[in-house]
């Protein structure tokens, strides 16, 4: 048995801001994926995944039955037979490893599930988001539910605010284009919870709160609008501002060895860096108007292009 594939995701814009109602834009990233598998695979990885899924299955039984009901007896019996989540999605990299797992479990074991083939009204999207938020909180302590939603639907998701989300279309890629969104592998695994707690601690400071509202959210919202409209010139202007705000105010979330590279991009305009997810490690997102120049400037770094302008 092998279940359907669920893909990783990239939150292009909105990290931290969506906690405070900024806009956000999340896109599926098909380079990585995961699926539930039943097989005689007894690798250490499969065993660890199976053990973790057993704990998750117990957690799911405690969820509000008005929100979602699972066929837990089927889930438990599959787990007894050695089911595990076979995934190429790196953990702690901000590309939604737990999101894909949550989507796969919901898809296979939820009763009365909302399917991708239905007319996805805003109410249905919000209900799915609430279910996924409750499920994924097992992994993160507190989850918005957006990662699994993206994985489950395999569609770009536009977040207008906490209670207003919609599946959206993004401008088609120009494969010959020099402009690009890319990922850099920091080589460090990032932990979401400690980064979020630093952010929440900073939120007690009035100066930080006003920076978030007047600068961070303002530029994030503008970037989302520019990207969806395909206004590349304005997008790079706003991405530069966003990159600068993050360097000045989110230093703990940027791995130390990237502080100089971050600043270099702002000084030369050859690329701009931003957080991918909560930061602290994992991937860093980059935006450039000329991918060849960016590759030269970032020589020695592993770059993966995810979108071409």
Automatic annotation (TrEMBL):
Residues 83-147 form the GHMP kinase N-terminal domain. GO terms for molecular function: ATP binding; kinase activity. InterPro entries: GHMP_kinase_C_sf (IPR036554), GHMP_kinase_N_dom (IPR006204), Ribosomal_Su5_D2-typ_SF (IPR020568), Ribsml_uS5_D2-typ_fold_subgr (IPR014721). It holds the Pfam family GHMP_kinases_N. It comes from the Bacteria. Keywords: ATP-binding, Kinase, Nucleotide-binding, Transferase. The keyword Amino-acid biosynthesis does not apply. This is Mevalonate kinase. It comes from Winogradskyella arenosi.
């Amino acid at each position: 048995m092998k279940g359907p594939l669920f893909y990783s995701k990239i939150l292009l814009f909105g990290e931290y801001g969506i906690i405070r109602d900024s806009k956000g834009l999340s896109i599926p990233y098909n380079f990585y994926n995961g699926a539930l598998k039943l097989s005689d695979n007894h690798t250490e990885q499969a065993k660890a995944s199976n053990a973790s899924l057993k704990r998750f299955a117990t957690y799911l039984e405690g969820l509000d039955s008005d929100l979602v009901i699972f066929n837990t007896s089927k889930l438990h019996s599959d787990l007894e037979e050695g089911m595990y989540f076979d995934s190429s999605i790196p953990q702690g990299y901000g590309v939604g490893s737990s999101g894909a797992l949550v989507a796969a479990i919901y898809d296979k074991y939820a009763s009365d599930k909302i399917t991708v083939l239905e007319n996805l009204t805003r109410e249905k999207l919000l209900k799915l988001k609430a279910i996924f938020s409750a499920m994924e909180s097992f992994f993160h302590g507190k989850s918005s539910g957006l990662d699994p939603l993206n994985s489950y639907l395999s569609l770009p998701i536009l977040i207008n605010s906490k209670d207003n989300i919609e599946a959206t279309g993004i401008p088609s890629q120009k494969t010959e284009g020099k402009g690009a969104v890319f990922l850099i592998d920091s080589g460090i695994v990032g932990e979401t919870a400690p980064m979020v707690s630093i952010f929440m601690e900073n939120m007690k400071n009035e100066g930080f709160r006003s920076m978030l509202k007047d600068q961070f959210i303002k530029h994030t919202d503008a970037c989302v609008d520019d990207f969806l409209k395909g206004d590349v010139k304005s997008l790079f202007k706003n991405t530069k501002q966003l990159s600068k705000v993050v360097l000045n105010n989110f230093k703990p979330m940027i791995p130390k060895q990237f502080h100089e590279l971050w600043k270099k991009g702002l000084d030369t305009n050859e690329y701009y860096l931003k957080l991918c997810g909560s930061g602290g490690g994992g991937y860093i997102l980059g935006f450039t108007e000329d991918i060849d120049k960016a590759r030269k400037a970032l020589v020695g770094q592993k770059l993966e292009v995810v979108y071409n302008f």
